[in-house]
Specification:
This protein is an all-beta fold. Helices cover about 0% and strands about 40% of the residues. β1 and β2 form a beta hairpin.
Length: about 100
């Protein structure tokens, strides 16, 4: 199921079916995450950004920790509140040929 974006483009809703093996991965999200919670129950979730370096435009990969005790047996909905309107990385990757 595709993610859903709120009308003001500041909240991203993610639908997780079944067990996500402990985490959900977001790629290409340039804007910072303010807060993440489980819709309907309110548990706040933590996240970590990996692969972001200050000199690159590449936003890195965001991992959302998803403990088993917050999973719904049918479908878990996560709300990701962003620091502003959604901004996606849309450029092609490139290989560094020379350092």
């Amino acid at each position: 199921m595709a993610p859903v974006l709120s009308k003001d483009k500041k909240t991203l809703y993610l639908f997780v079916k079944g067990n996500a093996n402990g985490e959900v991965v977001l790629r290409g999200l340039k804007i910072n995450i303010n807060r993440i919670w489980v819709v309907g129950e309110g548990t706040k979730l933590s996240h970590q950004t990996v692969g972001k370096v200050y000199w690159s435009q590449y936003p890195g990969i965001k991992y959302i920790k998803l403990p088993e005790n917050v999973l719904d047996k049918h479908l878990t909905v996560l709300a990701v509140l962003l620091d502003g309107a959604v901004d996606l990385y849309r450029e092609d990757g490139a290989v560094i040929e020379s350092n």
